[in-house]
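S.,

Sequence below, as promised.
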Amino acid sequence: MRCTLWMDSDTANEFIAMLDRSGYDENPDDAALAAVCISQTYTHQGSIDAGLARCSTVLQDLPSLLGESSQKFGTLPMLYYLQAHLQCAGGMLLRAEASNQMSVGTTGSDMD
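The prediction came back faster than expected:
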């Protein structure tokens, strides 16, 4: 993933648009990975509501369609973690705690 932390808003929006145009609809794992990149870009840009909307949509639509490695070791836990991070930034601490627990729960580990 490109580092979007130092992108200006126009460049970040172009990056998001490029990912959205890339046609990931055919592969749920790729679509979820693109959503991670987009949500992280929104996080770096301080766009809490947009990041939360992207995480919520993907977490609602894709988890049951993802392959095992995406579910347990990368994409799905990262989406829940990003959702928790954005919820913290938006002052939704109880929701953030629940999202963080979902992140940990998807890995099947005891890390907190």
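The two ends are 25 Å apart (CA to CA).

Coffee later?
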